[in-house]
Amino acid sequence: MMFDNKKVDSGTIGYFDTQQENHFFDRKSARIAVAKLSQSISAFANADGGELLIGVEDDKTWRGFASVEDANPLLDTAFDRLKSGYFDAEFLNSDHFPGFVLHLSIERSPSVVYSTSDEAYIRNNAQNKKVTGERLDSLRRSKGDITYESHAIPASLEDLTNSETMIHFMLESDRISEPSEFLRKQGLLIDGNPTVAALLLYSDHPQGQLPHAGIKIYRYETSGEARRDFLSGVPLTIEGPIYTLIRRAEETAQKIIDSIPRLDQGSGLTKIEYPVETLHEILTNAVLHRDYGTRDYVHIKIFDNRIEVESPGRLPANITPQNILDERFARNPLIQRGINRFPDPPNMDIGEGLNTAFQAMERLRLNLPYINESGDHVRVTIPHEPLASPQEAIVNYVRESGRINNSTARTVTKIEQERTIRRYFAELVDAGELAQRGSGRGTYYEIP
């Protein structure tokens, strides 16, 4: 494969020289051994991706390869370890340094990447850390290479098959087989022992064997000019099989939300409101897609102006906060499929949950939830912040872009009716905020 050979000036060199070696960037000598480079490739790919500049000494002296062919062993290492589309390479040359410097851009990998010695590394600040034992298992789970839901638990099969949850499910779903036979056919038994998924779905109290498989709910109040948040009361712990766990947690959280007063101008104290679908879908997603091998709870933190839902485990495989609404990957397919068999399942529309949550916020004209990864957790924040009014959104767009027409205004305001947008334009023109230009289909508006 041919790679770009780019001539760079002193400005580009200066840019790279100012970069500190950190979680996303590292520089290596052209004399680096293949095995050593493979550790860096593994570390960046298993973490959040990053850049490698190969041909720069520790003192930032640029001394590249005598020819691009001399870098072939290192490029072969990248090809051998990384899937197509998850890395890019280019050569840099200049009148200011000898040879060719290899610039590797590595993306976060959807599966665990190993070094030439079959060891896994992860980038931690400016270091490549080897991961073993439980940390390696956690990494493999986060990549979707293994799943904890299929792990066998030495629990009583008789207690599970005679549980109220199991019996109720079998009756409601008209299953004619014996519970143990049903579990076996669904791949929920290993050598006669129930799996994690089996206990979470059908045990009356799975937290007996999986103590962190519950939900913690916290209420934080905001006070003082510095707007500091303080924990109010004792956190609540919700337990039970997943089907009832989600419903109990949702009901408990909603009661707390309903108790939060909100001061609206002209209306006095009113109740704060979030779309019911938003909390339901985000909570359901957190419970169904969390890493059950991580010894921590799902946390729901209710503040005066937002709700935060934290789920143990990083986003799996190729899922990122940026593509999570478009890409699909089930960390716990047995749990997801199993709970969907219950009457009125919480994940009725499999794969559409978060999209539903976002759309519900849009309908109430609230700012959209935002998602970020923090350590080994995923946090979804549901803000209670109104979007700008349609008129404000239109004027703000014109100030930034110079002009606007009816079609663009419908996109900006998320209002589909042309007639409504025409009314807003008329109001803004009468108020002197906008001036109409053109006519017919060529009509647009700008600041007068």
UniProtKB/TrEMBL annotation:
Pfam families: HATPase_c_4, SLFN_AlbA_2. Residues 21-131 form the Schlafen AlbA-2 domain. This is Transcriptional regulator. It comes from Rhodococcus opacus M213.
